[in-house]
Specification:
heterodimer, A: about 180 residues, mainly alpha, about 0% strand, B: about 240 residues, 11 helices, about 75% helix, globular
């Protein structure tokens, strides 16, 4: 399994190189256009990341996280989710910048290869900003009543939380 | 939303810092957080540049369209109405495939185009229904396919979580790529659950106006011709039209 994970990026780089060589179209120009776009996206991320990283760092430094964790650790132990994931679970549906800030803080606090760090990585990769996406899409469509949309999206999100912890135990052998 | 998020976290932190007497470390955290934001975006900048570039390259090479072709038969099951009528079907497939490659910049406009097309179809449908019955159709309500698209997009479809890999690498992970396969499994399971759940809820909360469906569906096929395609989609529209009843 780790072989597959490790070979994904080499495969992509190799296929991209083949694509550039195999046709006369200016594919590399497309790369440059896309890369400039990526730089812009990242620059746009900085202001909100700045504010939210300050907030998250404050939350960890104030000791609030320790208190919350202590209260919830019995509960999280029973359901099998690491208690350190809680800030991520709360911020993930709301905003991409907030969850990125929380995620990097979690990695710093617990270590990227710890149980909490790996669970958080899988959850980050397999969930998205539910509230943000649903509101953007439905306001674009001009729809006011969203019926079961939020219920369904949050059930999926909750499933991802539990399933990421399960996969983490399965793949990385945490008890 | 971000402002509220920021304020709530700040207030909780300050109160806790006062209670637990952590004031000085809180002050340090403020300064540290700001500089860490720069560190983080710097470590993300290169990866985001590279990745957006590579994905734009794949898009210009037609890879997104290839994926869309592969996905079409599967998505037909998830969006029965859109694919039956052809309204928004093309935008939906392109949106999902762009999302799988992590091209957010391309995926969101496509999703919005799909939502708008489905919305126009819904209004047209309501006009047809109203001609045959006096009953008003509620137009503020999302259709089943709209909800499925939104929920599917809100569960991640990303095949390669590059940002997460970059953040893991920045945090000193020994093997930042180890999460790729578990992320695939978790995303796939989440997406399948999203579709199944939406289909289940669609049956569970069937809308009243559905009663008219059998009578008033002819309006759709006419609509297909006027659906605005996004970018270079127009040549693919014929396929969708052929699939329409």
């Amino acid at each position: 399994m780790s072989g597959i994970s490790a070979s994904v990026i080499p495969i992509i780089m190799f296929s991209v190189a083949l694509i550039i060589l195999s046709s006369n179209k200016p594919h590399f120009d497309a790369f440059l256009v896309g890369a400039a776009e990526g730089a812009k996206t990242c620059a746009k991320l900085l202001p909100s990341l700045c504010a939210l990283l300050v907030a998250i760092e404050m939350l960890f430094a104030s000791g609030a996280i320790d208190v919350i964790e202590e209260y919830l650790s019995d509960f999280t132990e029973v359901v099998g989710i690491p208690s350190g994931m809680l800030p991520l679970i709360l911020t993930r549906p709301v905003s991409g910048a907030a969850s990125a800030a929380t995620f990097s803080e979690l990695l710093k606090e617990y270590g990227a290869d710890s149980y909490t760090g790996l669970c958080a990585s899988i959850l980050m990769g397999s969930s998205d900003t539910v509230i943000y996406i649903l509101s953007v899409y439905f306001s674009a469509a001009g729809v006011k009543r969203t019926r079961y949309a939020f219920a369904a999206a949050f059930i999926v999100m909750l499933f991802s939380v539990f399933f990421s912890a399960f996969l983490c135990r399965l793949f990385f052998g945490f008890a | 939303m971000l402002g509220k998020c920021f304020s709530v976290i700040c207030i909780i932190s300050v109160i806790f810092a006062i209670v637990t007497k952590n004031i000085s470390s809180l002050s340090n955290a403020v300064v540290d957080g700001a500089s860490r934001a720069v560190e983080l975006s710097l470590s993300l900048l290169g990866v985001m540049c590279l990745w957006s570039g590579l994905m734009e390259l794949l898009r210009s090479a037609g890879v997104v369209k290839k994926i869309a072709q592969i996905l079409r038969p599967i998505l037909r099951l998830a969006f029965p109405h859109a694919f039956k009528t052809g309204i928004g079907a093309e935008e939906i497939t392109m949106n999902i495939s762009a999302n799988m490659l992590g091209i957010g910049n391309a995926a969101t406009p496509l999703a919005i185009a799909a939502m708008k097309a489905m919305r126009e179809g819904q209004i047209e449908d309501a006009n047809v229904v109203n001609r045959e019955s006096v009953e008003d159709v509620d137009l503020d309500v999302a259709t089943d396919d709209m909800i499925t698209l939104a929920v599917l997009n809100s569960s991640s479809l990303d095949l390669l979580p590059t940002t997460i890999i970059a953040l893991r690498r920045a945090a000193g992970s020994a093997d930042p790529y180890s999460i790729i396969v578990p992320v695939w499994i978790c995303s796939a399971a989440g997406s399948v659950l999203a579709v199944l759940l939406c289909r289940f809820f669609a049956v569970l909360f069937r809308q009243k106006k559905r009663r008219h469906d059998s009578g008033g569906r002819h309006g759709y096929t006419r609509r297909v011709d006027s659906v605005k395609s996004n970018g270079g989609l127009s040549e693919n529209m014929n396929k969708t039209r052929a699939g329409a009843p």
